[in-house]
Amino acid sequence: MTPGKRLFDILFSIYLMMFLAPVIIVVTWKVWRQKDGPIFYGSERMKTPTQGFTLWKFRTMAPDPNDTGVTGADKVDRITPLGAALRKRRLDELPQLWNILRGDVSFVGPRPPLRRYVEMYPEIYDQVLQSRPGVTGLASLIYAPHEERILSACTTPEATEATYTRICIPRKAALDLLYQRNRTFWMDIKLISWTTGKFLPRRIRPDRKGRPL
What we know:
- The protein is mostly helical.
- Helix content is 52%, strand content 9%.
- The protein has nine helices and four strands.
- Strands 1-2 form a two-stranded antiparallel sheet. A two-stranded parallel ribbon has the order 3-4.
C-alpha cells in the first residue's frame, strides 16, 4: 500500500465515522434489541498469506458455534429480518471502518479471505494478497450479485463449499488481479462512489455504465 493510499484511508475513515455516527448508533441499538446474540460478529480473515486479523460486522444471523465457510442457501434461514435489511444496504459492514483505521484493510481492494481458502489455494492468494484487502473492490461490485445467485442454489454446506471453491474463487481472483494491475487513485474513488451508491435511492445513485479502468 502506498503512503498516499494509507493517508486517504485514515482521513476518510475518520470522516465517515463522524458523519455516520447517528446511523451507527441506530443500527447498534436495533441489533442490541434483538437480544438473541452479540451486537458484533468477528471473523478471522487474512491480510497477507500468513497474517490474520479479526474483521468486524454487525451481526446479521442467528449465532451458530459450528458455522464455517461462506453463506449459501444452507444458511439463509439463520439471517434475521433486520440482518437481511442491513445486508441489502451493506450497513452490516459499517464496523469495518475500524478495521480500515487500524490498517487491517483498505477502502478498496480484494475482499479479505478466510484462512481456510488461503491455505487451500496458496497459488491464488499469494498473488491476490499482494494488494491490501479492502471493504469494497472490483470483484465485490462486479461479481457479488453473480456469487449470491450461484450460492443461493446450494442447499447444503458441502454444496456451498464445493461451488464457492470451484467457481467463485477463481473468478473473483481474476477480477482482483485485474484491479491490481490497473489500480489508480481515481479508479479507487470511482469504486468507492459505486459502493456508497448502495446507500442512496436508486434515482440518485452514481452512474455505473462507464468502465472503471
